[in-house]
């Protein structure tokens, strides 16, 4: 019986596929080509001389922070300044209702005139001995009291216009128009801050104080003062210490200090949280390593080196303080060591790497090519 042509073609195809699979089963299975060494950026370190320093959290404050208070009570009818603007000494800031003080001044002036006339009248009589000395003395006393009351009434009326006691930058108004102002604890209307110079308050704790002779800091122990802004940049003007507490706070165990910085452009504002860097001398023979290159482990800090044969070599190090964006390494490295600064999470001890120096900004990147795969 003759087979159908379609059946013959199908059978032939199956035979060819089976032969191909059989031939492939005799060879090794194909896999991904072997990977080349991992490209890494290395920093060839050299010993350096760096300034020794201590960094502490701090807060800025105006050199003078003056409270503006009402000296007489009444209804606040007008605010005469824009909150946050710079004002001059003597500039009017608030107006308190004057009407009752104008009336009091008119009354005091009338009594003053009356007492003055009475004293002048009795003066001619005392000269002719028409009255007793006591009557004239009483009139003179009444006149003095009336003149003092007149002066007080004039001051009270003048004080209804609240002026700036010093020049500086104004704060938020503590009371609004229509509020009742009373003399005493409720008399605060606003504050004025003098921003140039700017003061910065901070304290040194026990661990920092232990670095100084006698466990306390003195002016001769500090060679310079820098201010580190919140974004990590160094404020452009150097500072100086203008206050060192002579005692240690028994509750906190800290020594209070204050630094002063020139602030002509009002770049610093009161209340900012910043960091103060006290320069305390120099240290020679240390290494600077980017913070990202230092790994913290249970055994301590370590770095990864591109060692002999460009193999990854872990190296325990003794890390000191931070200096900018770098760790200060006090021990564990030697001149010429190649510290790996990137791809650290992908590295394993003994793994081959392809090291290259850091890319200079603006220069074309030159990443070494991976080694070619071996031919099987």
Automatic annotation (TrEMBL):
GO terms for cellular component: cell envelope; plasma membrane
Molecular-function GO terms, alphabetical: transmembrane transporter activity
Main location: other
Stretches with biased composition (Low complexity): 362-376
Pfam families xref list: Beta-barrel_RND, BSH_RND, HH_MFP_RND, RND-MFP_C
Domain Multidrug resistance protein MdtA-like C-terminal permuted SH3: 287-344
Region forming the signal peptide: 1-23
Keywords: Coiled coil, Signal
Chain segments carrying region Disordered: 354-376
Domain Multidrug resistance protein MdtA-like beta-barrel: 197-280
Sequence ranges assigned to domain Multidrug resistance protein MdtA-like barrel-sandwich hybrid in this UniProt record: 65-186
Domain Multidrug resistance protein MdtA-like alpha-helical hairpin: 101-160
Subcellular location, record wording: Cell envelope
Family the UniProt entry places it in: Belongs to the membrane fusion protein (MFP) (TC 8.A.1) family.
Protein name: Efflux RND transporter periplasmic adaptor subunit
UniProt source species: Candidatus Dechloromonas phosphorivorans
């Amino acid at each position: 019986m003759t087979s159908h042509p379609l059946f013959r073609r199908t059978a032939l195809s199956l035979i060819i596929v089976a032969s191909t699979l059989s031939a492939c089963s005799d060879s090794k299975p194909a896999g991904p080509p072997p990977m080349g060494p991992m490209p890494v950026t290395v920093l060839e370190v050299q010993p350096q001389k760096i300034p020794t320093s201590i960094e502490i959290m701090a807060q800025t404050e105006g050199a003078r922070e003056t409270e503006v208070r009402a000296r007489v009570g009444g209804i606040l009818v007008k605010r005469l300044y824009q909150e946050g603007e710079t004002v001059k000494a003597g500039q009017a800031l608030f107006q308190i209702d004057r009407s009752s003080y104008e009336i009091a001044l008119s009354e005091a002036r009338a009594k003053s005139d009356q007492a003055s006339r009475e004293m002048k009248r009795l003066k001619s009589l005392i000269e002719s001995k028409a009255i007793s000395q006591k009557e004239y003395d009483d009139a003179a006393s009444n006149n003095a009291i009336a003149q003092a009351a007149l002066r007080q009434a004039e001051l009270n009326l003048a004080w209804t216009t609240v002026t700036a006691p010093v020049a500086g930058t104004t704060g938020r108004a503590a009371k609004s128009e229509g509020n009742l102002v009373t003399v005493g604890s409720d008399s605060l209307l606003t504050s004025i801050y003098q921003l140039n110079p700017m003061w910065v308050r901070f304290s040194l704790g026990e661990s920092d104080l232990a670095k100084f002779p006698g466990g306390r800091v003195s002016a001769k122990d500090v060679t310079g003062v820098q201010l580190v802004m919140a974004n990590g940049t160094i404020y452009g003007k150097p500072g100086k210490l203008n206050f060192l507490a002579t005692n240690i706070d028994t509750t906190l165990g800290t020594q209070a200090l204050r630094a002063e910085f020139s602030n002509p452009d009002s770049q610093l504002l009161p209340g900012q949280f910043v960091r103060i860097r006290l320069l305390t001398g120099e240290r020679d023979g240390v290494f600077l390593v980017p913070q990202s290159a230092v790994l913290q482990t249970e055994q301590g800090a370590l770095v990864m080196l591109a060692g002999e044969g460009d193999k990854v070599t872990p190296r325990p190090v003794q890390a000191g303080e931070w200096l900018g964006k770098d760790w200060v390494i006090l021990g564990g490295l030697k001149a010429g060591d190649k510290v790996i600064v990137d791809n650290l999470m992908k590295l394993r001890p003994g793994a081959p790497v392809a090291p290259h120096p850091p890319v200079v900004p603006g220069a074309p990147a030159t990443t070494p090519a991976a080694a070619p795969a071996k031919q099987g």
